[in-house]
Amino acid sequence: MKTPSFEPELLSAYLDNEVTPEERLRVEAAIRNSPAAAAELAALRDIAARVCSMPREAAPFDFAAEYLSKGDQPIAPPRANHRFIGREPGIIRIHRATLAISSAALVALSTMAGWMAHRAARLTPSDAPAVALNFPASPAPLPPPARESTGGSAPIAQADRTRTEALSSESTPKRKSETDNAADAAQSEAAVALSKPQPIADDAGANSAAIGDTQIVAHEPSASPVASDAPSDIADDIDLSIDVIDKNASPRRMTDVLFRYLSAGYPRPSEAARDASSVGSAAEGVIEVDRERLSRALALIAADPSRGANVRISGDYALLSELMPTAATLAYADPPKSPDVRTDDASADTPIAMDADDERMFAVRHKTTGSREIATPPAAPPVNAAPLAPPPGRASRPAAERRPTTRETSIFVDPAIAEELEFLRIIEEMKRGNADSASQPERPNTETKLPAVSQSTTGNGRAASTASKAPSGVQNAAPGGVASQPIEPPPGGQTAATAAQPTPPPASQPAARTYRVRVRHVPSASPR
Amino acid sequence: MPSDGQDIGPKDEELVRRAQVGDRPAFGMLVARYQDRVYNVVLRLCHDRADAADLTQSTFLRALGAVRNFEARAGVYTWLYRIAVNVTISHLRLRSRKTQSLDQPDRTGRSREWAAPEGASVEESIDRAEELERLRAAIAMVDDEFRAAVVLRDVEGLDYAEISRVLDVPVGTVKSRIHRGRAILRELLTGEKPNRGHEDAEL
What we know:
Radius of gyration of chain B: 19 Å
Helix content of chain A: 25-40%
Distance between the termini of chain A: 76 Å
Mean pLDDT of chain B: 77
Oligomer: heterodimer
Mean pLDDT of chain A: 48
């Protein structure tokens, strides 16, 4: 018997147990008799399961606190930044229209006045009007553009620049319509910059770089003494320290994953790392890893969220700039121009440290000892900033010849900003690194499943330079190769299956430079 | 459906009664009980944490203003969901007029939802992150009305009658919207269009 076509939504309803007994019989009969219906049901079940598997989040604020703490007070008005939902009241629309017209008139008047002044200034005596307007013969020198200003006035300069950009975009109706969001973002940045001209770090000597809608702040490190002569807590035999800072949740999972990953493929982990699963509670362990694995682990830190935990990566600047070019780029937007990031050995006594006190901040702090040099404020770090050009003299120095110094660089990577670090780009780089390390130049470049990556940030240049620095296994990398292959193989071209086994690096290859990495759990109460 | 923590402390109805006579802390307890769930629904609908926080706040403010008129025929959570969905959809419609791309990334770190299972390898973590990102993007592309139905069903686990009350539409419409929403998601995620072959299946 050929049945009339039944409503397709019955399949979903059947899946949700929302059918009548009669409908159930019909659907089950259809599933028995029609492979297509069975496949359709399976597909719907899969989709439902996938949606259902999306992790839940805790509310970012305790909305209840307002009500619980103010028992007898009247209803609080909406927050200042509360957006109108639905249609705005008429009076507000009228006020906004009036404000817009007034602003436009003001801008027009200012523009006209400026134009007249400019035109008058350019007038020569011969074409000057008969009625003297008494303009000066030459215009007063204009102040340098805010974009070029540097030094201690950086916050104001940055704020002015941001404000100027915001205003210029706003005063150009054509562009405004095209770049509505960009103008809003610029205004938001300007607002942040103007309203928060204080440095990110609470102590002096801060030279902070941030991303997203946070501000860029710099001031003289000599404004007040900097307690930078405190000895570093990184021993000389440790190349890198990864501190998982417990804030309001246990970072154990992250430390576990990190150590398990770092220790894979190495037969002799240190004593502390022998039981990887206990690292989270053991608080500290040291392990030797090669560059590839370390680089990927650092990318994991930036990518993998561990709610409530911050991660501090401390180590030599040159090493970090190699391992975390994205982070270093964001932290040091323009390192060659920064007098604080010096490259000669004379600066070896100048510790450099990055710090972040704001949870959403990706920040850098330079500490100096006895130096009164003014840290050049880094330019606004675009999210797709160009890759960091390593300071001359450092990049060319082989990693194996690095001397232990007191210089320290700390990068705080908060999970909340992994988004703004362009997670996908990091993953892309990881994939590229994997593809490169697989030493398979014949592998065709396949179209990645991920969105296209900006050429300026992860193009061939970076890939080539990264490959040139890689100790082994990546020399034959295809520059710019972007593959949608699985993440493995690990360094040395192993497969995913073999990578899980403790296998020493191939003897035929030159011994790769290894790094001693300390992973530890730092309670939030501990001083950073 | 049991509410979060409803087994502990006063029941919802009791808290509502106290809130209706001006007991603000009682309303605060309701907020504490439902804020995570409301926030998650709003987040799944609007895909922006900053907006979701604002809209959640707005939801509770509206609820506070309307609690005196609340009749406990439906559950409190249904009432709160209804306010949240209405507030969010109004906001989305307003936002859509501003030509904001749905592809625009969440400004506040969607990475928090990329948590891999306990003990997952790096590869599993990355795969999970990619999967969630694809899923998130696909959900964002589904029409508001379908998305709301799917989220209430598959994320919040409401039954069709409850969804019907939240969305203020007949159960048949809920049934249709959920199926359409899932079919669209399937097409977006797998590229496969729903197979119509079963419509001629023989019993």
